[in-house]
Amino acid sequence: MQNQSIDEMTRKKLQDRFVKHNENQVQIGLIKFMNESIDEFASYHISRVPAIEFTQAMIFVVVRLFTSLYDKPLRH
Hints:
The chain is mostly helical.
C-alpha cells in the first residue's frame, strides 16, 4: 500500500509540474471542457466508464502536442 501512495504522489507531482510548465488558460479551458464532455458521454452507459481516464489522458496529450506544434515559428 505504501508503494502505491508513493507512486500516486510522484504521478501527481509530475502532472502538476507538466501543467505549470506550459500553463495556458485557453488550453486549460479546452481540456476541462473536453473532460466534462467525456464524463457526460460516459455517464450514459456503464460500459464506457473504464475508458474515461485513458481518453482524457489522450485528449490532454493531443492538445499539448498541437500547442507545441503551433507555438514554434515556421522555418523558411
